[in-house]
Amino acid sequence: MQESTDTINAKVLAVDDEPFDLLLIDRYLSRAGFEVLRANSGAHGMQVLEQSGSALPEAILLDRMMPGMSGIDFMELLAENPLLRDIPVIMQTGLADPDQIAYGIAKGARYYIAKPFSSELLVSMVRSAVSDYRQLRNLRNSTAEFSQCRTLLRGAQFEIRTLTEARLLAAHLAEYFPHPQRVVFGLLEMLVNSVEHGNLGLSYEEKSALLRAAGWENEIERRLQLPEYRDRRVRINLRKSTVGITLTITDEGKGFDWAPFLEIQPDRVFDLHGRGIAMSRMMSFDAVEFHGCGNEVELSVKLTPDEAPIATA
Q1: Helix (H) or strand (E) segment spanning residue 155
Q2: What values do phi and psi take at 177, rounded to 5?
Q3: What confidence score (pLDDT) does residue 32 get?
Q4: Measured between alpha carbons, how far is 174 from 185 in angstroms, rounded to an integer?
Q5: Could you write out the three-class secondary structure of 24-80?
Q6: I want to staple 296 with a disulfide (CB 3.0 to 4.6 A). Which of 28, 112, 145, 250 is the partner?
Q7: Within 10 Å of residue 311's Cβ, how many Cβ atoms?
C-alpha cells in the first residue's frame, strides 16, 4: 500500500551502532528532504523517541545486529508502547533467511533493506514507509466509534473503482469487525491490489519501477481514464454469521499467480512492495483464500460468542 504523497520534511529515526553507516544514512536522506534523527544504539534510539514528545518520527531505519539491545529487542519495546507501535520499521540486515525474515515481520518489521544499499533505494524505501504510515494513520483516525447497530449486520455489498474509494471503504469496512485496528491494514492492501493489479493490469515489475520514480499514483489515475479500464469495478461482498465475518473481493482482471505471495519470499523481501498479501495473512485475517485464476479473494475473521451478531426471532 504505497502512496506518492509528499514526504519532504518527514522525520526519520536511524538506529545503527556503526558511525559511518549513520553518517551515510543521514547524508542520503537529508539530501532527499528528510529530517534525520540519529541514535548509535537501541537504548539511545528509545531515548530519542522518549524525548520526541508528540513530534515522533514517521519511520525508523533500524539495524538488526547491534550489541546490547538488538533490532528485534528494540521492536519488542516499540510493540509494548501504544504511541510507538504503529511507526513503520525498516530493518537493515544482511540476512535473507525466510524464517528470520518472517520472525522479524512478526515482531514488527514491515520493510527490509539489504546492506550495502544505494542512495536511490534507501530514499525510495523510506518514502514508501512514510507514505504508507500516513495513509494508515489517516484511515485509523477516520474510524470513529461505530454504533452498536453493527451487531445487527448480516451482509452488505459494495463496488469501488478508484484508489480513493478503496481507502474510504477500507476504513468503513473495518468498523464491521470486532477489532478494526487489526483488519484495516489488510483490507486496504487487498482493495488496492484489486484496483491496481486486478482491474488496471499493473504488473509487479511496473509497480516497482513506478515506486522508484514516485509515479505510481499518477499512473493509476492515467489508467483509470483509459477506455479499456474505466468501466471496471471491484465488487465486495460482506457476510456475517455466528462464527465469523467473511469478505469476498472480486475484480474484473485476468487474475495472477497468487500462491507465491501467500508467504514472504526471499527474492522479494527487499523490494519496495510485494509483502502485503503475506502480511495480511499474518496480521489481519484468520484466513486468506484465492479462488480460480486469482481475481477473487475471500478474507475471514473468526468471532467469539460475545462478538457474534444479535439473534433475531
Answers
A1: strand 155-160
A2: -100, 150
A3: 92
A4: 9
A5: HHHHHHHHCCCEEEEECCHHHHHHHHHHCCCCCCCEEEEECCCCCCCHHHHHHHHHH
A6: 250
A7: 6
Q: Quick count: other Cβ atoms within 10 Å of Cβ 43?
A: 16
What single DSSP character describes residue 147?
P
> Quick check: 144 pLDDT over 90?
no
d(CA 68, CA 197): 43
Q: Which amino acid is at 228?
A: E
Q: What is the pLDDT of residue 107?
A: 74
Q: Which domains does the chain have, with CATH numbers?
A: 11-135 (3.40.50.2300), 143-307 (3.30.565.10)
pLDDT for position 159? 97
Gap between the Cα atoms of 19 and 40, Å rounded: 7
**298, 247 Cβ separation under 8 angstroms:** yes
What is the Cα–Cα distance from 41 to 18, expressed in whole angstroms?
9
Q: Which amino acid is at 260?
A: P
Which grid cell is 9?
Answer: 520534511
Intra-chain end-to-end CA distance of the chain, in Å = 43
| pLDDT tens for each residue of 233-288 | 999 999 998 899 999 999 999 999 999 898 877 777 778 888 889 889 988 999 99
Grid cell in block for residue 300: 475471514
Q: What is the mean predicted confidence (pLDDT) over 76-80?
A: 90
Give CA–CA dist 291/48, Å, rounded: 47
- Hey, what amino acid is at 56? L
DSSP 170: H
CA distances from 137 to 87, 134, 140 (A): 10, 5, 5
Question: What whole-number distance in Å separates Cα of residue 50 and Cα of residue 44?
Answer: 10
CA–CA distances in Å: residue 109 to residues 196, 222, 289: 25, 32, 24
